[in-house]
Design goal:
This protein has helices at 2-27, 50-56, 66-74, 107-118, 137-140, 148-162, 177-188, 194-207. By secondary structure, the protein is mainly α. Helix 6 runs antiparallel to helix 7 (177-188). The radius of gyration is 17 Å and the shape is globular. Residues 211-216 have low confidence and may be disordered.
Amino acid sequence: LKEGQNSARQADTNSLKYAIVDMIRLQFPESPALCSLDHKNKALRGFPNNLTGELLCPTTLDWSDDSVQEKLHAAPNLASTTSWPRFFYPKDRYNPTDIAEGLLQGELLVCAYKLIYTGPSSWDKPDGISRNSRYCNARLAEMQQVTCRSLAYVATQTRFALSSGETKQKVGGPFDNTHFFWHLVKFLEDPDFEEEVQDLLHWWNRYVNCQLRYRH
């Protein structure tokens, strides 16, 4: 069972590694940094790339400040596993006076969620219906709606896809993806934020239809 889960996670990682470039191109067609992004070479992503660097930049830091960029280039671990990256928010909609506004509603997250749960051919479709919806992860797992942990999983996969890392660090290392996932789960399942999270999940279920319809 564990081997099957690992295989499924690796399939999601490989699929998103390639597709994230197309997602970025769709959302940021005007960015000069697009020309240096490659579907297969992740070494061209991360903080050295101006676009993926900004998407990964913690909201507590100002990416437009050259000194911030230099520091993140030199020490990527400044972007800790407990900080919210910019891609958590919709394009140009981060509000520093209200960090809950738009949190986990970023366009890339929506695209990535569709790719992983409603099928690789569904991420750029408004209704999220895939040509292979009968075999998508959401249907195979009998998902009825977006869940906190599935959202944390997609956020973790997206963070890795945007980075320059070729191998996930499960424990320690320059970025601990496991810690990032569980920190996000802890926030989403915190009773103190139950009302806000329910509103968030309601928002998500308007965009991602896990109760897929398909023709027999």
